User: Fold this.
Amino acid sequence: MRWKPGKKQISIMVSVILCSLAIMLIYYVIFNGGKLTKALNHLFSILTPIIIGCVLGYILTPLLNMIEKKWIYSIYRFNGINLSEIQYFKKRKKVRQISVALTMILFFTVMYAMLMVLIPQLIKSIRDIIRNFPYYANNLQRFMDKYLDDNPAVRRAVDSLLEQYSTTINNMFKDFVVPNLSTMITTLSKSMMSIIQIFLYLIVGIVVAVYVLNSKETFIGQGKKLCYAFLRKEMANEVIGAFRYAHHTFTGFLMGKLVDSVIVGIICFIAISILKIPYPIVLAFGVGITNLIPFFGPYLGGGFGLILLIMINPFKALAFLIVIVILQQIDGNILGPLILGNSTGLSSFWVIFAIMLFGGIWGPIGWIIGVPVFACIYTLCGHVTMKKLRAKKLPRDTSVYIDTAYMDENGIVKLSEADNSKYYVHNEASTWRKIFKFYKKNKRYIEQVLPQKTDPVNDDTETENNEIRTGIGTDDKFDK
Assistant:
């Protein structure tokens, strides 16, 4: 007789197989983690052009939508044709191809114009900085010598530090730099090859971006179809909603931050040009680019310019510092809230946390995209938490839980009403708190009885009368 496994036996077998695969995977990760990391890095390097193309296509999607929906669709609508209707499917495909071509042309035109304006100025400024660097170094040296001559105590401290660390620096140079010169040259040559590789990756990425822009609705539909095929309907709706929120957060934050940084760079250029601060293009470009990094970015850009200007002219450096401080106040209090609003919903603490976390994982890219990524994670956790609280019929307002000690069958018990014998609620009082409570409890005795007891004129009879009058006896005076 042939054995036919039932549904329960099949479930057990599938569970055993999945558990075995999970154990094997954990074993492989623990004992062969290096090989796995190497394989993942190799896979990532292979897919780099595809990733670049997808990112570029995602960034250009708002521009494509504007050209297609606002411009071309409006022209057709003016002529009495509504391209959203089903019968115009073929015409929509042609319109999409025209829109993609116009998007790429406009993108390359803007990039070319920016490069033609900025690159020559940047190259000229950097060449001037390199050519005049010895002069700037001498300027800084003269300024420091004058300062040290006017402050002998500071000079003695600096000389002591130089004597203490000069030998260490020389030894480090001999031990690490000189023996590794050949390795440094090899690394530099590999970096040049990497630049060529990045250029090739960009070409492939542009081709991929064209395909992404042309078929973005198809990709979105395929993703939704997979969700509804492999997940429960409610879970699929949650996943699609999470991706929709992530898209809204990313586009709102990145586009807003880009516009904000361009405005900050232009204002910085105008201000330092009026003050005749050297190299306005380089300094404004640095401030605008680093402004893409939330919180820390403006200080990085301002610090670079400040170090450069200190060597040229300390007074110009001070003027530049004042401009940066005023500009960041304007950006933080006016421009930022006006353009970005509350696009991430994160407090300053979580912004710093996201920058440090994702910056450590992904480097400079993590500094820029870490905040919207963490905003999505933060919102997802908040959504799940609210759903669980709603299912348990518990309050969802955070302020309710600030003064909560514990919950029992009667609901929330506040800290001021909690029973410390049931759950640990009240911390042990500190020494000063004990002294204060002791004084408050025995205030009458200390202020009335004690001075009379220490008075040598009063006898024992008078002391006993005072105790009877105040209601405090000799045995139970600390119990009242």
